[in-house]
Amino acid sequence: MNTAGFLQPAMLPGLITVGLLVVGFVMYERSTASPVMIAVVASLAALASAGRVAFASIPNVQPTTFIVTTAGMVLGPANGFMVGALSAIASNVFLGQGPWTVWQAAAWGAVGASAGLFGVLGPRSGRWHVAVFTGVWGFLFGLIMNVWHWLSFTFPLTLRTLLVVEAAGLWFDTLHSAGNIAFSLIFGDQMLRILRRFARRLTYLTAVVLAVAVAIAAVAQLPGPRYVARAEAVSTAVDGVIERGIRYLRSTQNADGGFPGVAGGQSSEMVTSWVILAIRAVGLDPEAPEWRKGDRSPAGLLVASDEFLNNSGAASTDIARRILALLAAGYAMRGPSGLVSDAGMGADTGAGVLDRLARSLAARQRASGQFAGDGEEELLNAHFWSVLALAPFPGGIRDRAGALRFLQKNQNADGGFGFALGLPSDPDDTAAAIQAMVALGETGESLARAVGYLRSAVGSDGGVVWEGNKPNVASGSWVLQGFSAARSRPGGVPAAERRAVAEWICHLQRGDGSFPYMDGSDSMTVWMTAQAVLGLSGLAFPVAAGFSDMPASHWAAAHVNRLARTGALTGYPDGTFKPQKGVTRAEFASMAARVAHGDGPAAGTEGGGPAGTPHGAEPEYRDVPRSHWAFAAVSLAHRLNLVKGISPGVFAPGDAVTGAQVVTVACRLAGVEPAPAGPGRPWYEPYVAAGAEMGFLYLGFNASTAATRAECAYSLAAALARQ
After folding, report:
1. Per-residue pLDDT tens digits for 502-553
2. Pairwise CA distance, residues 124 & 464, whole Å
3. d(Cα 716, Cα 567) in Å, to the nearest integer?
4. Dmax of the chain from CA atoms?
5. Which DSSP string corresponds to 663-716?
6. Is 571 within 8 Å of 565 (Cβ atoms)?
7. How far is CA 609 from CA 599, 600, 666, in A?
């Protein structure tokens, strides 16, 4: 028999296909894919194989193509190819191996590789993209396998016989395509979200491994805590991202003390304001020596701009942003009519600038309650920013009720807010509006609707899109601040949703610590890095600019900042923290419960106390009944063994908390329970000794005297850092 004519048309394509598969496997073997990624590829291939075997009784309806496609779109062409090729080989262990396996492996490998290219070059993928893509590949896959059947089993090899084979397989190809579309529409968004979440978390694998190693080492030496504090806003991974971002910002500072939009460019007053706010939001002092260039500082650039100050037509948003930046730089205030400099620049310059700016902005409030300069009547964002800048000033907002009514009146039907009157809602302006509403004391339906819109603006992978089809860092950062403002309010925002947005932002950080506006963009990296740091700080405006009575130089400032970023502590509506104010035992129990169990709705508000308080729980203390504002917090703190009564059934919620009680709770938060005091010794002596060793004792500690808010914050934050 003469086989030459047969080998050329039938065998050669098969050999070429085998060769392409081998090349693909070898290239992947030599790639830099991590062991974790390889394990995920293998798991997805196994899932695709299992799905194929499970649906084998239904002709050509199987989830394999769908799984391979989503893997490629998220994990890239190389990983998509491997998932597709391996799924064919593995499933045929059960369904039967043969020469067709090579062609199936090549076809599904092509599905995964092309899906990866689509993910890189195409628009942001959702279930409809997956449905269309897999629907088309249902027929392309059939075409490849029909060609194999035609080459292997049909004679003569003519166009007519090829069309006959294609026609015979059309029904099966249609079932394959329809099944792909169904799987995509039902499970597409969920599968993409799971894979994207993994892809983001893989970025932080090293940090996670190090954290686990440290935890294991600590457990080997110290008694472990009975619970884990949910301080996701200041988790180790996010803290590392923030630190790298701050280092990048410092590297871009110009000789005039200011910051450019892009490294190496001319200083921008707007970008400099954002950087000052970012520095202060993470507990640093923007006027410290490390942020000075000789006698030039970032805030000095803002103070020196006479042209801006003398321009009565300056935009309200620009004035407001500058006010917040100067407050962040360390200026204490007495009201719009009298400001004094707390530190840094002289009172005859900086304080005067802040006074003039505050007077100018406060004068723009109209009879309707709206803040707007000439020609700004249609601009809602001018109102948002003005409220945020003036909220910390006693009397700065002359008509607070009117300012809130204006917001409520101009809220869109979907709960969101636009840039101007009549414009569709967008996440950036809605987040600013939420912060303004909270600053004005809103806790009702308007706030809940705005938060609902903001939650709906977050994509399945945590990204936030405003303009275009790709999420961006600025919108994500604004959303984080909006969520932070609302997190302690009734209904709040689930921690998982806030964490998803934070993780999406973190995964965009570059090697030098900078952030782009969006993936693949190089514009305004300094500005975007400042916004990313600000959003990741966990603080909303105006608190992000710092408490007015807690300058960065205060001995407890860093500790107060840390607890504020977790949501465990909040300030007062006037923008102060009142560090010297006394704390009752009920208030301290509430603070401790928040530190231990996260930042759910505040005790005493609609929505209950910290998460974890069982409904219908019996009161632990007769002087803290269910009707008491701190019932939920005290009950939770008691169950966590953080607090105890002063006698059986008596908690004394209104008594001042003492230094001894504060350090005792700090030790328990850190999982430290020393041996009881010896006979005749004060009960708290072992806790004080342990607290001194672990750094829990605040400045001027006295076990028997009442503790202040700053002192309580210091000890609780120090304990949180030990967890």
Report:
1. 999 999 999 999 999 988 787 789 999 999 999 999 898 888 888 878 888 8
2. 12
3. 13
4. 109
5. HHHHHHHTT--PPPPPTTS-TTHHHHHHHHHHT-PPTT--TTSBPBHHHHHHHH
6. no
7. 10, 7, 20
